[in-house]
Amino acid sequence: MKLSQETLHALALVVRVPNYDRSQLKPGMVHIGLGNFHRAHQAWYLHCLMQDGLAHDWAIIGAGVRAGDSIQRDRLMAQDYLTTLIELKPTETSAEITGSMIGFVPVEEENAALIAQMADPTIRIVSLTVTEGGYYIDPATKGFDSSHADMLHDAAHPSTPKTAFGAMIAALKIRRDQGVGAFTCMSCDNLQGNGDILRQTVTSLARMADGDLADWIETNCTFPNSMVDCIVPATGPNELKLVRSLGIEDASPVTHESFRQWVIEDSFCAGRPEWDKVGATFTDRVHDYESMKIRVLNGGHQIVANAGEVLSIATIAECLAHKQIGAFFEKVAKNEIIPHLAPVPGMAPSDYVELIKERFANPRIVDTTRRVAFDGSSRHPGFVIPSIKDGIAKGTSVSGLALAEAIWARMCAGQREDGSEIAANDPFWSELNSTALKAKSAPEVWLSQRKYYGDLVENRHFSGAFSAWLEIIWNEGVEAAMATYNRDEA
């Protein structure tokens, strides 16, 4: 049965459906970058509130700034913006249909419709999932990249911007000029201090064109830091087949694990839904939560996926089942990552490692190594290298982390050990590939990429370990290198 508002009554015989009158919902949020993760996470929390009779004036309007986002818009519009969420536990499957999204603005090159929607006084939160690499950060300084062509364009054409951030600024200008007031700007991406980074991008871009507007944004907008967590694979043929097996025709279903976590700084300039009533955590300790999650889960994903790619292992669950990869992840996490993490209420770092092992190993979550390994140029500096720097500063072991970086370099050489090609999988793939091939005979070349590693090439302890591991990898293979670490390292 085709998923639509009209068929919800019939589908209620098969799955859980919204119990609220969606025709009475009013918009309160715009979300930019409306993919699977947002629908399985933030939109689900809002849906749960609506199921409890709350937050009916906080419905979501979807948005996108890439040409490809129009495909998602068409799919969701054809089914009244409803989504089938399929929860995959190791031994059981359950499904529900969520309805907290009620619209999706047209995707346009100059973003006029998006600007108008965000300028509407009913919108009080604009949230984003635009990937870790989407915030125009200079990788060398970690500051705002004012020289990027997109930023130069938006600064020169503030009323017809091409980026999400330019559109937000244009909408905020309209709201200021009309006396409407600001909205909260909320990043939901996997970045340490994601709210602070979003503030940096928005205010710095605004200042390139209009200093007074930038000052107004600084004074009136809030940018809460947050930590989001739920493993959500991409949708492919298997997921489409699964939703059809439930008797539902959904062009864009979402599968996800049973675990969710959302930790948010309570800093909202125009109000917010009561997400804490359905499991979210509001706290001033977001940093501790996000450090644990980013370094163990997201950093662990890179440790696991890069090795899996080189060894032609298709999914994260299969990587965890691999004797050497599973042991490698656990040892690095326990010996080299969690010594630098603080416990959070209800969770010690060592217990968190066990939780992540269990989640990674769920065979029902078909999360591909290729998806997880994507954009290593953003994810290694954000998720792995901070643990290396902490280890060096505190004099603890970084040998396993050096091996993880050597495996990334081996992956970027573009060929698996079975001879098959690793297709381009990073915005800077050409540069990474060229450097990785040079590093085969001169390992220090890889660490000389200062925009990722800073001055780590000058640290003999780390660079020596990296070089030794890369030599073993090229001579004996990734599996042999991991086996050596798993067996011999303290």
Automatic annotation (TrEMBL):
The keyword DNA-binding does not apply. Residues 286-473 form the Mannitol dehydrogenase C-terminal domain. Its EC number is 1.1.1.67. It holds the Pfam family Mannitol_dh. Keywords: Oxidoreductase. Residues 29-277 form the Mannitol dehydrogenase N-terminal domain. GO terms for molecular function: mannitol 2-dehydrogenase activity. It is an enzyme of class 1 (oxidoreductase). This is Mannitol 2-dehydrogenase. It comes from Boseongicola aestuarii.
